[in-house]
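WARN retry 2 of 3 for item q-0093 after timeout on previous attempt; input resubmitted unchanged.
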Amino acid sequence: MHIFVYEWVTGGGMVEHSVTSVGSLLQEGTTMVRSVAGDFSRIPDTRVTVFRDVQLATLPVAGCDVIDIDSRGAHDEEFDRFVDSADATLLIAPEFDAVLTNLVSRAESRDARLISPGSEFVRIASDKQRTAERLAASGVPVPTAVVLEPDDPLPRDFPYPAVLKPIDGCGSQDIYVVATPFERPPPYAWPRRIEQYVPGLAASVAVLSGSAGLFPLAPCRQSLSNDGRLRYLGGSLPLASGLAKRACDLALLAVRALPTCTGFVGVDLVLGGNPEGGEDVVIEINPRITTSYVGLRAVVEQNLAEQMLRVARGAAAEVSFKNWAVEFDTLGTVSFTD
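OK item q-0093 returned
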């Protein structure tokens, strides 16, 4: 079997720009592609191909065929070649500027055998406002929010504190916590969403999706910066059983509210103080593999990439978890705690 694992930041999406300009996205992209491609390469009789931007000559991806990308033309030509020929293609890219949507659409136009979400799902999940509207219409709780155009001031008749974020943001980019409507966050040239800050436990649930159903993995606690930017720093698991059940139940409701999809998706949520879950909300849905893969692969008894492939091809997941406490960060560092 031949699997093509494409990650946009490390794989040439920034080849004609400085790849370091995307900051934390480079760090998280490196972590994801090394982890998931490495796991696919451990499946017997499997060949894995990844792309590598020539600006990242030292990027190691053990056990994989590496294609160096030195120009936009080379990127597009090789992308088409490998989505045409691979038995399975996994796409990882940011949602901003429709990067992920366009890549998925391009792959679908060539009848790629995708094992990651398709364009119908990605198009909605990449837009935080459309996602929230879809969730709310299905009865899934989401924060109170409004959309602001670039020149709009912060609304005075809105519940503060609040979180200001790009509608199609990724990797905690350009997120600001605002305490009052009189603050002056940095200007932004595109529409933003301002949503009520919801106190509670920030968590995420990864869900494997395929024709056999939805299979939630162990929920992770999210570690976020406390500097008013809510930067994603990593996470830990497991959660207490009551919290874990609330998180999984809410994540499944959220994924079911969007079009049917294939592959790994991540649901970010906040678990409030009500032990019955009455204050829990969904923050957003990530239509791709997330950095939580790093922590999850450390506690899954099986090869997590192989399970993802299995579910994407229509079988049920067969996942069991080690009874370990794990912490992980965006560099891919995993530590085991009591």
